[in-house]
């Protein structure tokens, strides 16, 4: 009985996770972290995400960022303002230039929307290279959380991620196998171009906010959730 | 053998199925928003997706923050003013953090409603 149960468990794990191929995404968290005090962050219940400033060539990169950031913040226990609504309001007011917005004062934005903290993001790098049949995308995002109450930077990190379609080819030991694998990868690359960019920025967001000792500290709602489970 | 199975299952679960212990049910929010940004004319389609997320997350009280407000905003753009106001109010009730912005949106919806009736 136990054995059957466990086999089912294994099967479920395999099926539900088979789609995700995280092995091709390389986490290269680098750079520095601002020193923050957890107490300071605890006063902040809500986070407003500004559209990302884009220093990369890829003009779609900010769309990918804005579409994927909300869950990473909310699951940390913060109220995250509706990104599409906020983006449209800013556009209506003629403040759609993300590079300008990212230089604006946190006090001003906080007052306008009633947000405790503002997330400023810069896409520093978003580079796709095509080497033969292989695709390598590297992305680097800088996240800065500023207090709308004090104006201080309360959390900051830079996350670098890399996607390499050649990553799994090392296991192929015959030339034929290698060629087949490359052809398959090339075909996948064309149909999955969108979803690869999406997966890449999503993993950057999740890694930056959730992984390691320098992840964003949990907000008040996260604490409440854990306590109510007991 | 049994131990191995347990271990493998556990590793698989923990490593790639993080979404299982989410606080909220996000459904297709990310991808719907991405598609909407790519084709901004498809307002009805985005509205339907948001409606679906709400339907699926309401029964277990796992509506993600911002979803009622996003839905309200699309309704506003579709000129369904009364419905929009009711969703802005829902967001405000569930997330008091949004009060200032939602009051602003409700005010805006009321003004637009008045202007169309003139």
How would you describe this protein?
The complex is a heterodimer of chains A (230) and B (118). Chain A has 230 residues and is α/β, with parallel strands linked by helices. Chain A contains nine helices and seven strands. Chain A has one domain: ABC-type transport auxiliary lipoprotein component (Rossmann fold), CATH 3.40.50. In chain A, 44% of the residues lie in helices and 23% in strands. In chain A, strands 1, 2, 3, 4, 5, 6 and 7 form a seven-stranded mixed sheet that branches. In chain A, a hairpin with a 5-residue loop joins strand 6 and strand 7 (153-164). With 118 residues, chain B is mostly helical. Chain B has helices at 2-16, 29-38, 43-57, 67-77, 81-94, 99-117. In chain B, helix 2 (29-38) runs antiparallel to helix 3, helix 3 (43-57) runs antiparallel to helix 4 (67-77) and helix 4 (67-77) runs antiparallel to helix 5 (81-94). The longest helix of chain B is centred in the C-terminal third of the chain and has 19 residues, at 99-117. Chain B is globular. At the A-B interface, helix 1, helix 3, strand 4, helix 4 and helix 8 of A face helix 1, helix 2, helix 4 and helix 6 of B.
Task: List the keywords.
heterodimer, A: 230 residues, alpha/beta, Rossmann fold, 7-stranded mixed beta sheet, 9 helices, disordered C terminus, B: 118 residues, mainly alpha, Serine Threonine Protein Phosphatase 5, Tetratricopeptide repeat
Write the layout of secondary structure elements.
The complex is a heterodimer of chains A (230) and B (118).
Chain A: H1 2-17, E1 25-27, H2 38-42, E2 46-49, E3 53-54, H3 61-74, E4 79-80, H4 83-92, H5 98-101, H6 106-113, E5 117-131, E6 134-147, E7 153-164, H7 175-191, H8 193-210, H9 220-229
Parallel strand pairs in A: 2-4, 2-5, 3-5
Antiparallel strand pairs in A: 1-7, 5-6, 6-7
Helix pairs in contact in A: 3-8
Chain B: H1 2-16, H2 29-38, H3 43-57, H4 67-77, H5 81-94, H6 99-117
Helix pairs in contact in B: 2-3, 3-4, 4-5, 5-6
């Amino acid at each position: 009985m136990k054995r059957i149960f466990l086999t089912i468990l294994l099967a479920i794990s395999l099926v539900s996770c088979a789609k995700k191929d995280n092995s091709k995404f390389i986490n290269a968290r680098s750079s520095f972290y601002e020193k923050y005090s957890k107490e300071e962050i605890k006063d902040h219940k809500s986070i407003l995400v500004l559209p990302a400033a884009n220093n990369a060539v890829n003009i779609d990169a900010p769309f990918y960022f804005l579409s994927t950031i909300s869950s990473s913040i909310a699951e940390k226990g913060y109220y995250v303002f509706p990104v599409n609504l906020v983006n449209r309001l800013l556009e209506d007011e003629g403040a759609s230039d993300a590079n300008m917005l990212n230089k604006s004062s946190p006090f001003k934005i906080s007052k306008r929307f009633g947000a405790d903290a503002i997330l400023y993001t810069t896409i520093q790098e978003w580079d796709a290279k095509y080497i033969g049949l292989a695709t390598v995308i590297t992305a680097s995002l800088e996240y800065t959380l500023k207090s709308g109450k004090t104006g201080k930077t309360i959390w900051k990190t830079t996350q670098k991620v890399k996607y390499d379609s050649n990553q799994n080819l090392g296991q192929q030991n015959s030339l034929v196998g290698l060629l087949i694998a490359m052809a398959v990868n090339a075909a996948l690359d064309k149909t999955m171009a969108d979803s690869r960019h999406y997966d890449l920025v999503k993993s950057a967001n999740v890694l930056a906010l959730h992984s390691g000792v320098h992840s964003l500290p949990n907000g008040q709602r996260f604490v409440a959730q854990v306590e109510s489970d007991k | 053998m049994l131990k191995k199975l347990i271990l493998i299952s556990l590793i698989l679960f923990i490593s790639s199925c993080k979404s299982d212990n989410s606080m909220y049910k996000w459904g297709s929010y990310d991808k719907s928003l991405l598609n909407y940004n790519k084709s901004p004319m498809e307002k009805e389609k985005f509205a339907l997706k948001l409606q679906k997320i709400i339907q699926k997350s309401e029964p277990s009280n796992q509506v993600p923050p911002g979803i009622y407000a996003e839905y309200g905003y699309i309704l506003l753009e579709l000129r369904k003013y009364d419905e929009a106001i009711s969703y802005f109010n829902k967001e405000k009730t569930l997330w008091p953090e949004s009060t200032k912005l939602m009051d602003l949106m409700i005010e805006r919806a009321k003004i637009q409603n008045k202007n169309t009736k003139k």
